[in-house]
Structure formats: structure tokens, C-alpha cells
Amino acid sequence: MGNAVRMVAITKSFPGTIANDRVDFDVEEGEVHSLLGENGAGKTVLMSILYGMYKPDEGQIFIKGREVKIDSPAKAIDLGIGMVHQHFMLVPSLTVAENIVLGREPVKNKYLLDAFKAADETRDLSKKYGLEVDPTAVTNTLPVGVQQRVEILKALFRGAEILILDEPTSVLTPQEVGELFKAVAALKQQGKSVIFISHKLKEVREISDRITVLRRGRIVGTVNNKTTSMEELAKMMMGHEMPSIIMKDHAKQGETVLRAEGLTAFNDRKILSLKSINFEVHQSEILGIAGVEGNGQSQLIEVLMGLRKLEKGTILLNGKPITNASVHERLEKGFSIIPEDRQKTGLILDFSVSENLILGQQDKPPFAEKLFRLNLEKEGEIAEELIQEYSIQTPNKETLVRHLSGGTQQKVVVAREFSKQPKFIIASQPTRGLDIGATEYVRRRLVEMRDRGCAVMLISADLDEIIALSDRIAVIYEGKIVATRERDRTNEIEIGLLMTGATND
Which domains does the chain show, CATH number per domain? Predict the structure, then answer.
């Protein structure tokens, strides 16, 4: 088969950085080609250029041997390129069929949506590619794995022959990952080309034909999956050997730091999302909360932080009730949080690294002075110390955090939160979207905080992460804690089944 895509000498610069430096990349027809690289390596920029979201400064793009200019996603779609983004682009209130045909709706009487035809076309498409969906289901009621199928079908409905999947497994259970890989294999069988972006080496080895590695905006190499190894890929990505797997001793549990009793709360749509939840977290312990996203994790975090009203229940910190305490009071008492979305709720993107490192502490010594003045000298001094201690890769402390890679942004959040010497840490999706090096770094820091005596609650959609880091694992399903297991007395299969409601205690 010939090339489906060929990108030649692609160069793209942003202020202060070269994201892609004369990158050559090609994908064959009927091939699954994975793109690997640490955060900031340039892989997302490269795929954004292919999808028409960025215009290259230099270089050429060929689709099936013909040179093309792709200046918009609409042009990319016309050329048979589809992209499923890490954060889905669906309209939650529409049905599956309405989302799939959106912008290309079948109509009757010239103006009205032909809902029956839309549903029929969705069923036919679903059957053709083995991606089972209910065309009439409202999208926001569906599990994440099914929503992803809708995104893929949406691209296929628009005629995609080349499909870009951006971190497609980051929110899926092991069972859903298996279903996705079956679908990718089916697409390949039908001659589709799939570009698979992932930082999970195990998955890349399982799904790929070829693998291309980017580092610092340049191609390191392209290898055949059958003739490479995990160690070789990791070395290509990072320029050094693969980091060792975290080995941690059993925690010697201390006193109970946080106890939750009968937590009950509604979500924004006035639907009961937490149903009498009970758990406790001890000193020197990581309690992992495993669950498919959308089963109450976000509401649980908001309730614990004082951001959502409790209908019933009690929260105790070191034996003292804090149920009615404000967010500020909880932070003052030793709460700390790594939020699931670092850009929306963890950072102020147009603030500098230095300013972000003292957020939440700017109103007290040593930063606050009389007449509401900020001690800029002290802020800079502390920022330099944290940049050094947490290996924050930034040109300087005055750099705006929006110009940093995702992994470096996460280090800014971790440095700020852990430097407060907290008693209780909520770590929500702490390594989502991070490369191997940044993931390893954040995980080691979490274990360090546990070993210093902190109580840590880890919420992650990455089951490997939950099992690797947790001392105990609590599984949340439909707003309930359905089981709690000692890490050494369970396995991925049991936890995965519990997460989908297939079994319980």
C-alpha cells in the first residue's frame, strides 16, 4: 500500500520555541502508526497542523501522493482526515445520532431534521465498523467509553480515511480499552489509517505497526513495533534509560486524618450523585479511588473541598468536624489539592510561574505586607527555591505558565501544593496527559508526601496508577463506594469489574 499521509520538513515556531523542526512523518494506508514523545516534544502541534488547526511555517503535506494546503479543520475533513480529541467535542444535550450528523443533517421538508433517517444512518455506520451505540441516547447519559465511540463514528460519518486519536485511553477502564483496540483493528482491516497518540508504552506496543518518536521538536526515529522494545522506546523518548518502576513499602498506617460518614449530595442537574459514602484516610497512606469518570468523583472532591453543599453526612479532620467549614478554612487546616484540570482550576495561565507558585498564600506572611502590598522580593526568592527543588523547566520565574508544557505546568501545581506542608492531599488525575518522565516524577512526589506522614486520596482513571501507588483501593460506582480492597489482595481484573458494576461485595 502507498502513503496515506506524508509530511515533509514541517517547521512550526511559537514565541521563544520551535515546536516542530523540519519534521518528516508518514503514515501508510491501512496502518496504525503511533506518535510518541514527552510533553513539549511537538507531537500535538504536528497533528494540529495535519488537522488544519495550525499553519506550518515551512514544509509540505501530501495526502495519497498529492500535495495539499490544509488551512482549516473543514479542509482536513474534506481531505478525509478526522481527529478525536482528548477532550471530547460532543454537545452533551443532543442525542448520539444528532451529534454524529451535526453539520451534515439529513432533512425533510427542506428545513426539518429527519431524526429517523439520522438514527438509521447512525445504526448502519455503527454496524459497519463494529462500534455499538444507541442512536437515540442522550450523550451526557453515556459512559465515557461510549462517548468516545460517538466521536469516532462522527469522524467516520464525515468520510475519514485517516483518523487521529489523541490520548484515546486516558479516561477508559481496562475493559473499554480492549473494546477500543478491537475497533481500531477493525478500522485497519477496512483500510483506514490510524495515528495513535499515547504516552503509555504498553498500549503503543499492543496496537501499533510502526512508532515514531519526537523529542524537543525533532524526529528521533521511526521503528517497527515487531523489532523494538519498551526500553528502546523509552530511551528514544527521554534520551536516557527507562525510569525504574516505583517500588514502595507497605505504609505503616497512622491515625485517621480524614473520615467521611454518609456523604450524600446532588449534582448540578439535581440528580443524586453521592449516595451515603463512607471512607477514611490515615497518616502515611494513599487511598486510591478507582472508577469510571462520571460516577461521582468530581462531586466527591467538591464536597470534601467545601465547593458543593452536602445534603447529609459528616466530614472529620483529625477527629474534629469540618463539614461546614469554608474552602479557605479547610486550606488553613491543612487541605491541599492537585485538581483534575490544571489549566482550568489549578493555574492562572496568564500569571507568571512565580505568581502561580504562591497562589493561596499571597495574603499572609512572608508574602503579605501592610497596605495589601505583596513582598515581590520574597515571592521571587521562594519561587527560585521551588523551581530548583521541583525541577521546573522554565526560561525564568517570570515566564507565563501558558507557555510551559503540560508536564511543567503540573510541576508548578505540585510544587505549590506540596510546599504548604499539608496534612491531607487530594490528587485528582495527577498524571493525566503527562509523558513518562513527568508521570514518574509526580508519582514519586506523591509517595514522598505519604512517607512524610501525609494522608493522600488519589483519584485516577488510570487503573495501573491506582494499583501502583495505593495502599488501599476504594471503588466508586454510581455514587457509592461498592468495595474497598487492600492493594496486595486484589488485581486489575477484579477492580475493573467493580468499576463497571459487574460485581460487588
Answer: 3-238 (3.40.50.300), 243-334+422-505 (3.40.50.300), 349-419 (no CATH)
